[in-house]
Here is the input.
Amino acid sequence: MNKNMTDKELKDKFIGFFVNKGHKEIPSSSLVPENDPSTLFISAGMHPLVPYLLGETHPLGKRLCSLQKCLRTGDIESVGNAFHLTFFRMLGNWSLGDYWKEEMIPLSFEFLTKELNIPVEKLSVTCFAGDKDVPKDEETAELWKKCGIPEERIYFLGKKDNWWGPAGKTGPCGPDSEMFFDTGKEKCGNDCKPGCSCGKFVEIWNDVFMQFNKTSEGKFELLKQRNIDTGMGMERTTAILNKVNDVYQTESLWPIVQKIEDISGKKYEEENLRAIRIIADHLRAATFVLADRILPSNTEQGYVLRRLIRRAVRYGKMLGIEKVFTIEVAGKVVEILNGEYPELLKNKEKIFEEIEKEEKRFAGTLSKGVKEFEKLTEGKNEITGKEAFFLYETYGFPFELTFEMASEKNLSLDEDDFKKAQDEHQQKSRIGAEKKFAGGLADHGETAVKYHTATHLLHKALRNVLGENVHQIGSNITDERLRFDFTYPEKLTEKQTEEVEKIVNDKISENIPVMLEVMDLSKAKESGALAFFENKYQEKVKVYSIGGFSKEVCGGPHVNSTGEIGKIKIYKEESCGAGRRRIYAKIS
Ligand code: ATP
Ligand code: MG
Here is the structure.
């Protein structure tokens, strides 16, 4: 087996392998989805590709591959074990209605055994067991057998393990086939097999066969386009290739662990493992979220960021760290990962400033809050939602943190009670964010698409009224509103706002068709198309034009013509940092 396979070597091998087979490499998207209201963070390589999996034409063709940074809030509670991180990197390849399983399974086998030199004896795989909707995936099992995986290491599991999607309630989905590495540990029991969480079998790669469309009646129809979507975890794969016991002993985490050992004076060994892992993972994740320009707050992405930092700070205290420390850890993250991720270096100052600010904000109240928690729960077997809300309001304890502390003492805590207490204080934002954790991936609803096109009109209207120095910094769309951030030094006057709104609504009334063209980025720019997320685009790009009025490089999707949007109303305008303004608008 390979010794000391570096992250870069693994990436180069994977991307090189698929480029050789006719794939185009696409760059990693930001951790924060653009124009996708249904989820807070990118959680898989396929996520930025949803429109293309649904059938839109990708400018780079039908075969793609990438290394995508991902964040899984759903895995926060698993962090502390050997192989689950919140932030990790996923290698992936896609066939957008091109090749199918007969080609993919041998490719996976070839890559694992020939490129990575993993002995066949170490590999086992799982296939979909079948249910009332979709038959057992014998086809994939046969393909694995043909490659040389013996029957006894091919397992059939149900929907929970071997089915992906759909993203939202409806949409593309299908059975998958997962590849596991046997660590050589003893089985935890007779039932121990791939899918068991004891750590003997580590899942490293998943091939999803997106063949079905789940309808609103819950039926599974065959899709017009059959896609392949795969994901391989980089940290997990380098861990097994380098024969270490966990992902923390790989190159992108080990120096962080050492830094935490240094700061705390505690060793990375049994009694400290969980705390050190949580701190390392959470602060690495927080650093990347900050690098994508999210700030700690009580809503949406900012709230996740806050939870990550505050939980790390609590575990820091539990390890005995007295001083301010997050900035040093973040410094290590920037130092070791800025080569692949220039956004770390670019936003270094801001990352350090904000992580330290958040730590100080919380560290000041943490011990008081812990004391209060002890007092509230003394001799009791529960903590009430009201009390948890009190800790939240007074000491900045995120609900999940109080819940974790309660669990550690076997105390019960009812989340609904907490929400009730929170509602009474009219702080509904966090719950909104929670809903989104459960919400899964985008299905690009009609409303979101309308808002997306409205965003282009707004962007151009702002430039017309305020001048060409206006640049889009970001946008965020929900089913209720659009939010648009841009550069401009001062508050907009009422007259300016009205004027912008009028221009947008005039363009809507004109019912202008929205046209799509695919062209080289340089051509697009020459032709005057706006492209503000430059580093993300390469070679061929999609350009959306709205008559002669607006022209932007953008992934879509958009309405067919502006009349579909309705009418917009700007209902709020505010600052969002020095030299930056934020606008909220609604469709009526
Ligand atoms: P698991 O069952 O271990 O949680 P998964 O089924 O959720 O994994 P997928 O959604 O199929 O994983 O993701 C594709 C690949 O990404 C996995 O095979 C694994 O290598 C990697 N991966 C998934 N979740 C994590 C995580 N939390 N930390 C590190 N790598 C991960
Ligand atoms: Mg998982």
In short: Residues 253-365 form one domain. The mean pLDDT is 90. The CA atoms of residues 97 and 226 lie 5 Å apart. The chain has three domains: 7-244, 253-365, 446-587.
